[in-house]
Write a structure and sequence with these properties.
Order of helices and strands: HEEHEHEHEEH
Mean pLDDT: 81
Strand content: 5-15%
Radius of gyration: 37 Å
Shape: elongated
Low-confidence stretches: none
Distance between the termini: 148 Å
Length: 261
Amino acid sequence: AMQPNMHAVDRFAAVQERLGEASNELETHRERVRQATAQFEEVRRRRLQMFQECYKHVSESLSVIYKDLTRSSKHPLGGTAYLTLDNQDEPYLGGVRFTAMPPLKRFRDMDQLSGGEKTMAALALLFSIYSYRQAPFFVLDEVDAALDNVNVKKIVNYIRQRSQDFQCVVISLKEMFFEHADCLVGICKDVQSLSSRILTLDLTQYGETTTAVGAAASAIAPILEKELETVAENDADDKGQDNVDKSTRGKAAKKQTKRKK
């Protein structure tokens, strides 16, 4: 006859206990996965929402700003510029394409645009991005190098119209920027100290009838005259020293010739 296993009940209870613990642990991990998934989806939703909000603002501003920068009497409608997404579902995982078409120009790649057309398109994109979250100021370093006077005037007028909203530091060699600036900062060489010297001029103290270039010339002229006088004096001293050195060398050469004789 079979002998009953008296320990089977104990083993069954132990297995049931381990099963319960494993089930509880599994449910705990499932809950953590659900929470992590919910948090991930929330972050993903917020990320998409914030991206779409920024993209929509920049895209709409870009269209308006580019039209303003390229509008003229001959082309009152201006040009066309827009952004397109490579990945519509998750746009932050793909690229953003920028297309600009100057007035009366057909569609073409950005690489085929001229230097001036690229500059105007780039500035329009810069201003549209800046309009989303404004910074205290930004710097434009010789952005007008490839622009003619007509486009330079458009950029100047755009900056002047929005001068109450931000401060713009422009590094330029074009007089048109100087004429419409609030302050001029120049850097020159200090001959005496052999170092750079900074000259500043506040143009707000002059009337509108006085041009910035004329005011700058009047203010900087005495400084330049003093610098030129210093340069002339240094040149005269150098020439005098050279003459003394030549005379000394000539006398020494004569003495050596006499000694040889």
